[in-house]
């Protein structure tokens, strides 16, 4: 590639020298400058598309672009945790996670072999490249091909890797087991025993979910059946939201795939627990004239789909927006350093980001509360008994 670039540069120089002999003296300089600019542009375009793939230009990113790239990287899932990077050396400091691929057999290795996308990994004669947080099958040179919209067209292996989000979910699940097994052990020894340690802080939250969400929305006769799910989803979302405020780069509830799964769980529980009155009110509402029944039936069906969709979007949008704003306020330290001075930028960035992080702690609880409250409400609507008479 270097030899090709030198050859093109030499050819361009020869052409410029020959053309300058036949040009007028008073326009030689201007024409030469224009020709050089056009030739440099042509050389860059040629090099970008050599061998059918684009070569990244070593253009210097602005401070705003660096901030935006860092925010995007934090919000996205990845195959390793990066705590900080050294811009001068290009080194990233963190730890890698296991990569598990199924592609003509099982292939397991650590993501550090990719060197954060700088290297191509060869396993059993197959080559893989990490590109924009996704793994693609390539040749030995790591060639990425694109379609007209500049989207990679390389084939992807079946990926079961332990990414940041998966590791976060596993860690949270283990933590919840430890916390609740300790709380359950306390109650097992005696109903009047007081919890100790962290379990003492869990008990008020458990009672809050029971007394303020489950019982009022589902009813005393049926709420116990759904308490395991409501407690699980409440504490899962709450703990993941709190972990998202740490510098470790957790953003699980800001991932649309996770919120979709949680919403689908609620949807399944609601409709598998629903009684005949629920289905009757959806498809053939009692006490309503037949023409109105035909009009209301598609609306009710659409409403059943919209309910979990609203759960999914609300959680995803609020957490993603919160993380973006916190990072944006922290970025004031870097972006506004010249305008406000180092001390002024640090002071304003620290004050605003600290205030918002405190607010985000409230939002972390609020989003867990809203998701659990609406889930219990939807379940209560599905299992409620209705006393009515069919209108004639």
UniProtKB/TrEMBL annotation:
Keyword presence, Coiled coil: yes
GO terms for cellular component: plasma membrane; proton-transporting ATP synthase complex
GO MF annotations, alphabetized: proton-transporting ATP synthase activity, rotational mechanism
Keyword vocabulary terms for this entry: ATP synthesis, Cell membrane, CF(0), Coiled coil, Hydrogen ion transport, Ion transport, Membrane, Signal, Transmembrane, Transmembrane helix, Transport
Membrane protein topology class: Multi-pass membrane protein
Main location, first listed in the record: membrane
Secretion signal span: 1-25
Annotated TM spans: 166-184, 229-250, 256-274, 294-313, 319-336, 348-371
Coiled-coil regions listed in the entry: 29-56
Annotated compartments: Cell membrane; Membrane
InterPro entries xrefs: ATP_synth_F0_asu, ATP_synth_F0_asu_bact/mt, F0_ATP_A_sf
Family: Belongs to the ATPase A chain family.
Function according to Swiss-Prot or TrEMBL: Key component of the proton channel; it plays a direct role in the translocation of protons across the membrane.
PANTHER family for the chain: ATP SYNTHASE SUBUNIT A
This protein's name: ATP synthase subunit a
Organism from which the protein derives: Myroides odoratus (Flavobacterium odoratum)
């Amino acid at each position: 590639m270097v030899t090709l670039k030198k050859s093109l540069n030499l050819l361009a120089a020869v052409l410029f020298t020959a053309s300058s002999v036949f040009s007028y003296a008073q326009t030689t300089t201007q024409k030469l400058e224009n020709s050089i600019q056009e030739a440099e542009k042509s050389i860059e375009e040629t090099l970008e598309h050599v061998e059918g793939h684009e070569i990244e230009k070593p253009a210097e990113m602005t401070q705003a672009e660096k901030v935006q790239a860092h925010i995007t990287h934090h919000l996205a899932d990845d195959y390793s945790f990066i705590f900080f990077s050294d811009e001068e050396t290009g080194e990233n400091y963190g730890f890698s996670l296991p990569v598990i691929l199924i592609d003509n057999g099982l292939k397991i290795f650590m993501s550090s072999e990719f060197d954060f996308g700088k290297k191509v990994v060869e396993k059993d004669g197959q080559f893989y490249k990490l590109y924009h947080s996704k793994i693609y099958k390539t040749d030995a040179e790591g060639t990425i091909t694109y379609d007209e919209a500049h989207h990679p067209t390389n084939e992807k292996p079946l990926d079961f890797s332990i990414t940041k989000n998966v590791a976060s979910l596993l860690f949270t699940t283990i933590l919840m087991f430890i916390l609740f097994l300790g709380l359950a052990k306390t109650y097992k020894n005696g109903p009047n025993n007081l919890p100790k340690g962290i379990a003492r802080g869990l008990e008020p939250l458990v009672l809050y979910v029971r007394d303020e969400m489950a019982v009022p929305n589902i009813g005393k006769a049926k709420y116990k059946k759904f308490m395991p799910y409501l407690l699980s989803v409440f504490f899962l979302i709450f703990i993941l939201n709190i972990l998202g405020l740490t510098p470790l780069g957790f953003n699980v509830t800001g991932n649309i795939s996770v919120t979709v799964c949680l919403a689908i769980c609620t949807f399944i529980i609601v409709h598998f627990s629903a009684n005949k009155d629920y289905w009757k009110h959806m498809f053939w509402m009692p006490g309503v004239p037949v023409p109105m029944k035909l009009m209301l039936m598609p609306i009710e069906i659409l409403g059943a789909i919209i309910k979990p969709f609203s759960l999914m979007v609300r959680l995803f949008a609020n957490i993603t927006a919160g993380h973006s704003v916190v990072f944006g306020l922290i970025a004031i330290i870097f972006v506004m350093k010249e305008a406000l001075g180092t001390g002024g930028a640090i002071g304003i960035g620290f004050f605003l980001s600290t205030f918002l992080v405190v607010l985000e702690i409230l939002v972390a609880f609020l989003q867990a509360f809203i998701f659990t409250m609406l889930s219990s409400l939807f379940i209560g609507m599905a299992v409620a008994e209705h006393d009515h008479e069919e209108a004639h």
